[in-house]
Amino acid sequence: MKLLTLLKDLPAHTLTGSPQVKISHLECDSRRVLPGSCYIALKGTQADGHEFIPEAIRRGACAVVAEMPCTKEARDAGVSWVEVNDSRLAVSLMGAAWNGHPSRHMTMIGVTGTNGKTTTAYIAHSLLKQSWLRAGLIGTIAYDNGEEITPSTHTTPGPLELEHLLKEMFENGCRGVSMEVSSHALDQERVAGINFNVGIFTNLTQDHLDYHHTMENYFQAKAKLFEQMAQDTRARRKPVAVINIDDAYGRRLAEMFSGRMAVKTYGSALGADFRMLVHHATAKGSEYELEYKGKSYLVRVPLIGKFNMYNSLAALAAVICAGIPVRDAIANLQNIPQVPGRLQLFTHPGGAQIFIDYAHTPDALENVCRTLKEICSRRLITVFGCGGDRDKGKRPLMGAVAARLSNACIVTSDNPRSEEPLSIISQITAGMPEGRYAIIPDRARAIATAIEQARLGDVVLIAGKGHENYQELSTGRIDFSDAKEVRRNMFIKEREEFPQA
């Protein structure tokens, strides 16, 4: 592909050298540059790709995209040089062009917000798949390219990987894609090359302030998805924003984009386009009454918790906006799968119920604890920690939530990364009354202790890591799965209580 074709969608840029040069690869890592590659220099948190331009040229790069003027070395080597204001924006747009703009050929649903992204994206994916047979999924747990499902590497992959994945989906016959869109991805322009048809905003609560610093910055990062959609003239269908107006930030977002693009609101608030009215839990999940366009529908969802009613309502609204008939979407909700690590239930041999959940923010932990209190006939035992090298401000808040809503708390390690586990734990317990918690830094032992203590009627919540099959320590990643630890300890417990088995 010629460089000129790749530059077609780029905003203002300066080209030095030939636009007709043929490009064999797009590459952001100088170590992987091959003869004929176009090297795109990105400024990262750990290193600046501009420092490796000479290496890329030595390895045979025939073109360079950078946030600086052409160098003498590049000019002497006959390298075409593209000076841009934002390399991250450039790589996203060029990645889309390189792969034939796959998002323009599918119905794209993007889900953003603090809590509920994974479950909402999973539900929307299931609904698309049930109606259209093949649909793509990109999110925290897995990628589905229409042919196979693989574990994910990031909630939202880098732009080159992302666009290649979308191309695979289109080639595999996917008509639509449901994907999580993280605030980091939006801030770093990873999805700038995607033409979204439906954007979902779930909610905004404290998280990632180690990166965004303020809630306003965090909100503005989320709003970029809808700004991008409002300015899009090439999407497959007219973009629609699906926004939760029971959330204060959601109401603000709806006001910001009303008049600039189609906005459909959801929630229990008066005036919501997709309004949830009467709702209650059932033995097999939840059900609620949906009011839409003057008609009422009974909606049943095989997931517990009011927050999952919101997740299902968001997904339902999105796929309806994407063209799936209302009654088909509602009927198919009953067939959605269990989302791994999201209120995932294990039945204890002694009669207790054990749940694994990804809840890792104060709001998410409160929602899960309140949901489990409703089905708990005896004690709620909560095992949780907080990740290292991440937002420290939420640690005492999570401790306060767990102490207030649980009958017993075990504070343990999550993914401590480079921080000392006991230091993280002390910041968590700063928000908890004395005598309301036990400290067991070893997560495996904490889980074992909770299961050992559980009795008939108890509910054990193991929060924070959900589907993850690793633990990040200062020495690197190790294999670790909450689900495996639960199964192992339940097997031990069963052998103790029923030795004849």
Automatic annotation (TrEMBL):
<feature type="binding site">
    <location>
        <position position="188"/>
    </location>
    <ligand>
        <name>UDP-N-acetyl-alpha-D-muramoyl-L-alanyl-D-glutamate</name>
    </ligand>
</feature>
<keyword id="KW-0460">Magnesium</keyword>
<feature type="binding site">
    <location>
        <begin position="113"/>
        <end position="119"/>
    </location>
    <ligand>
        <name>ATP</name>
    </ligand>
</feature>
<keyword id="KW-0961">Cell wall biogenesis/degradation</keyword>
<dbReference type="InterPro" id="IPR035911">
    <property type="entry name" value="MurE/MurF_N"/>
</dbReference>
<feature type="binding site">
    <location>
        <position position="190"/>
    </location>
    <ligand>
        <name>UDP-N-acetyl-alpha-D-muramoyl-L-alanyl-D-glutamate</name>
    </ligand>
</feature>
<feature type="binding site">
    <location>
        <position position="468"/>
    </location>
    <ligand>
        <name>meso-2,6-diaminopimelate</name>
    </ligand>
</feature>
<dbReference type="GO" id="GO:0008360">
    <property type="term" value="P:regulation of cell shape"/>
</dbReference>
<protein>
    <recommendedName>
        <fullName>UDP-N-acetylmuramoyl-L-alanyl-D-glutamate--2,6-diaminopimelate ligase</fullName>
        <ecNumber>6.3.2.13</ecNumber>
    </recommendedName>
</protein>
<dbReference type="GO" id="GO:0005737">
    <property type="term" value="C:cytoplasm"/>
</dbReference>
<dbReference type="InterPro" id="IPR004101">
    <property type="entry name" value="Mur_ligase_C"/>
</dbReference>
<keyword id="KW-0963">Cytoplasm</keyword>
<dbReference type="Pfam" id="PF02875">
    <property type="entry name" value="Mur_ligase_C"/>
</dbReference>
<feature type="short sequence motif" description="Meso-diaminopimelate recognition motif">
    <location>
        <begin position="414"/>
        <end position="417"/>
    </location>
</feature>
<feature type="binding site">
    <location>
        <position position="464"/>
    </location>
    <ligand>
        <name>meso-2,6-diaminopimelate</name>
    </ligand>
</feature>
<feature type="binding site">
    <location>
        <begin position="155"/>
        <end position="156"/>
    </location>
    <ligand>
        <name>UDP-N-acetyl-alpha-D-muramoyl-L-alanyl-D-glutamate</name>
    </ligand>
</feature>
<dbReference type="GO" id="GO:0071555">
    <property type="term" value="P:cell wall organization"/>
</dbReference>
<dbReference type="GO" id="GO:0005524">
    <property type="term" value="F:ATP binding"/>
</dbReference>
<dbReference type="GO" id="GO:0008765">
    <property type="term" value="F:UDP-N-acetylmuramoylalanyl-D-glutamate-2,6-diaminopimelate ligase activity"/>
</dbReference>
<comment type="pathway">
    <text>Cell wall biogenesis; peptidoglycan biosynthesis.</text>
</comment>
<feature type="domain" description="Mur ligase central">
    <location>
        <begin position="111"/>
        <end position="319"/>
    </location>
</feature>
<dbReference type="GO" id="GO:0009252">
    <property type="term" value="P:peptidoglycan biosynthetic process"/>
</dbReference>
<comment type="function">
    <text>Catalyzes the addition of meso-diaminopimelic acid to the nucleotide precursor UDP-N-acetylmuramoyl-L-alanyl-D-glutamate (UMAG) in the biosynthesis of bacterial cell-wall peptidoglycan.</text>
</comment>
<keyword id="KW-0067">ATP-binding</keyword>
<feature type="modified residue" description="N6-carboxylysine">
    <location>
        <position position="222"/>
    </location>
</feature>
<dbReference type="Pfam" id="PF01225">
    <property type="entry name" value="Mur_ligase"/>
</dbReference>
<dbReference type="InterPro" id="IPR005761">
    <property type="entry name" value="UDP-N-AcMur-Glu-dNH2Pim_ligase"/>
</dbReference>
<keyword id="KW-0132">Cell division</keyword>
<keyword id="KW-0133">Cell shape</keyword>
<comment type="similarity">
    <text>Belongs to the MurCDEF family. MurE subfamily.</text>
</comment>
<dbReference type="InterPro" id="IPR036615">
    <property type="entry name" value="Mur_ligase_C_dom_sf"/>
</dbReference>
<dbReference type="InterPro" id="IPR000713">
    <property type="entry name" value="Mur_ligase_N"/>
</dbReference>
<dbReference type="InterPro" id="IPR036565">
    <property type="entry name" value="Mur-like_cat_sf"/>
</dbReference>
<dbReference type="GO" id="GO:0051301">
    <property type="term" value="P:cell division"/>
</dbReference>
<feature type="domain" description="Mur ligase N-terminal catalytic">
    <location>
        <begin position="22"/>
        <end position="91"/>
    </location>
</feature>
<dbReference type="Pfam" id="PF08245">
    <property type="entry name" value="Mur_ligase_M"/>
</dbReference>
<keyword id="KW-0573">Peptidoglycan synthesis</keyword>
<feature type="binding site">
    <location>
        <begin position="414"/>
        <end position="417"/>
    </location>
    <ligand>
        <name>meso-2,6-diaminopimelate</name>
    </ligand>
</feature>
<dbReference type="GO" id="GO:0000287">
    <property type="term" value="F:magnesium ion binding"/>
</dbReference>
<feature type="domain" description="Mur ligase C-terminal">
    <location>
        <begin position="341"/>
        <end position="466"/>
    </location>
</feature>
<feature type="binding site">
    <location>
        <position position="390"/>
    </location>
    <ligand>
        <name>meso-2,6-diaminopimelate</name>
    </ligand>
</feature>
<keyword id="KW-0436">Ligase</keyword>
